[in-house]
Amino acid sequence: MSHEDLEAHDKFLFTLEWLLAVTKRHAGGLQFGLAHINYESPKILGETYGAQKAAQKLDEVSHSLRKAFRKSDLVARDGGDFWILVPFAPAEKLVDKIRYIIETASQSGLQIVERDISIFLLPNDAAQLGENVTAQEFLAYLKMNHITLASNEISLPASE
């Protein structure tokens, strides 16, 4: 990952942990959206482009996402996963915006893998995990349970 991606990842985790703590203290007062974009097979990207070129293409997606969203929205990349933290917005609008950005980014070759997009409107049941859950553990929980916890799910299939 690029230096910019590492900084954005750290900032994202810090902000998410703060939001989770505030949400626990003030239930119902703070709402925000969290989007997860999962590139299903980083292995296919690596086999197709080579590891370095695949990483560069994923960095390009990070950059495109950061550029397309507002400064108050945070974008983090973790391997082939992208997380976007946004103030409360209608889920449909967020899905449409992300779909457009991903389809645009895919024109540079990333359409060869399936991309799943999950939108979470928080707080939800996942925000009640426990007092000492880290942001990283929270994201892992959301990723593992996205089918039951996401308010919207879309999948962009790999092209032939």
UniProtKB/TrEMBL annotation:
<protein>
    <submittedName>
        <fullName>Putative diguanylate cyclase</fullName>
    </submittedName>
</protein>
<dbReference type="InterPro" id="IPR029787">
    <property type="entry name" value="Nucleotide_cyclase"/>
</dbReference>
<dbReference type="InterPro" id="IPR000160">
    <property type="entry name" value="GGDEF_dom"/>
</dbReference>
<dbReference type="InterPro" id="IPR043128">
    <property type="entry name" value="Rev_trsase/Diguanyl_cyclase"/>
</dbReference>
<dbReference type="Pfam" id="PF00990">
    <property type="entry name" value="GGDEF"/>
</dbReference>
<feature type="domain" description="GGDEF">
    <location>
        <begin position="28"/>
        <end position="107"/>
    </location>
</feature>
